[in-house]
Design goal:
This is ParA family protein. InterPro entries: AAA_dom (IPR025669), DNA_Partitioning_ATPase (IPR050678), P-loop_NTPase (IPR027417). The protein is of the alpha/beta class. It has one domain: P-loop containing nucleotide triphosphate hydrolases (Rossmann fold, 3-Layer(aba) Sandwich), CATH 3.40.50. 41% of the residues lie in helices and 18% in strands. It contains ten helices and eight strands. α6 links the parallel β6 and β7. α1 packs across α10 and α4 runs parallel beside α5. The mean pLDDT is 91.
């Protein structure tokens, strides 16, 4: 059975979508069959791979999601596009067990076809994110190396622990990733030390630096590997990919 990684943080602008897209791309380059699932109504992960949002999100239907999965420009990487349709967003965010079970059943039905499924979640700990957590086997949390890095993280950890209990341990902590990393700044070093002291080994050794290539690549509908393969960002996500594979 493949691994289902939920990329989540209740704060926006921490590199969540950037991580989902580029880790998926790196895994595909490592010859891992990979599905990127866009559950964020902003559909940024969909656009980052040069694809268009769908008019109806496949996860809200009882029908198989196979027909909604699309090819990307990269071999081994497929995408389940996001939807901006308000009705779909409302249905996905419905606070009941039925919708959460539907999402989980959809992913369980295709996981044997992939080594990895990565879910890009909205910047919240609402029902939509919780549905994604219920369907996942691991949670990956990007944390920006800035002053409020730890703010709100306690609430997120409580939500994750509640899902772990509710799913009988199906969900585990996949890791915490430090993003927007600038070693020349004292604040970055302080956040790094604080996070590693508090969370220990679940923090990835790999860090993602501030790199303009990571910001520019989505506007070209490409991952950083297709846009700037020799950039610091590409190197960082290569290192992260190796760590994720080693943690299997």
């Amino acid at each position: 059975m493949g691994r289902i990684l939920c990329v989540v943080n209740q704060k926006g602008g921490v590199g969540k979508t950037t991580t989902a897209v580029n880790l998926a791309s790196a895994l595909a380059m490592a010859n891992q069959s990979c599905l990127l699932l866009d559950m964020d109504p902003q559909c940024n992960a969909t656009g980052s791979l040069g694809c268009e949002p769908t008019t109806g999100h496949a996860l809200v239907s009882d029908a198989s999601i196979d027909g909604a999965i699309v090819e990307t420009k990269q071999t081994q990487l497929r995408l389940l596009p996001g939807s901006r349709t308000f009705q779909d967003v409302d249905l996905l965010a419905t606070a009941d067990d039925q919708q959460a079970d539907r999402v989980r059943k959809h992913l369980d039905s295709v996981i044997d076809h992939y080594d990895f499924v990565l879910i890009d979640c909205p910047p919240s700990v609402g029902e939509l994110t919780q549905s994604a957590l219920v369907a996942s086997t691991e949670v990956l949390i990007p944390i920006q190396c800035e002053y409020f890095a730890m703010e709100g993280l306690t609430q997120l950890i409580k939500t994750i622990k509640r899902v772990i209990v509710a799913t009988d341990g199906r969900l585990t902590f996949g890791g915490i990733l430090l993003t927007m990393y600038d070693p020349s700044l004292e604040l970055t070093r302080e956040v790094d030390q604080e996070v590693r002291e508090f969370f220990g080994d679940i923090v990835f050794e790999s860090v993602v630096p501030r790199d303009v290539s990571l910001s520019e690549a989505p506007s070209h509908g490409k991952s950083v590997f297709q846009y700037a393969p020799r950039s610091r960002g590409a190197y960082a996500y290569t290192q992260l990919c190796m760590e994720v594979l080693q943690r299997d």
